[in-house]
Specification:
The protein is an alpha+beta fold. The chain folds into 2 domains: 45 residues, no CATH class; 29 residues, no CATH class. The protein contains 3 helices and 3 strands, in the order E-E-E-H-H-H. It has a 3-stranded antiparallel β-sheet with strand order 1-2-3.
Length: 97
């Protein structure tokens, strides 16, 4: 979109922005018409479809989980540091040990 200022169209020492409509060269001065032009411009810009290559199907990353072993649980509890914030259940590490 082209923006320009028109001589003599100043508000408090600042130039009043005017949008030049690209499609037919008509200068828009009405704030409602300017907003509508911006809405139409971005609607066209953001909703344009582009051809895309189809993606190859990916291997599933989630599947059946193996149950935890007692050894895995013990190792994890040993790694937990004492005196830290509780888990979501509100149980401190010291209680697990």
């Amino acid at each position: 979109m082209n923006t320009e200022t028109i001589p003599g169209e100043e508000i408090a020492g600042q130039h009043r922005p005017v949008v030049a409509d690209i499609e037919d060269g008509k200068v828009l001065r009405d704030p409602v018409a300017v907003k509508e032009r911006w809405r139409a411009y971005f609607e066209h810009l953001l909703n344009e479809d582009f051809p895309r290559k189809p993606k190859a199907p990916a291997e599933p990353v989630a599947g059946p989980m193996q149950p935890w072993t007692v050894d895995e649980v013990r190792k994890t509890i040993k790694k937990m540091k004492a005196g830290k914030a509780t888990n979501p259940g509100g149980i401190p590490v010291e209680a697990w040990r």
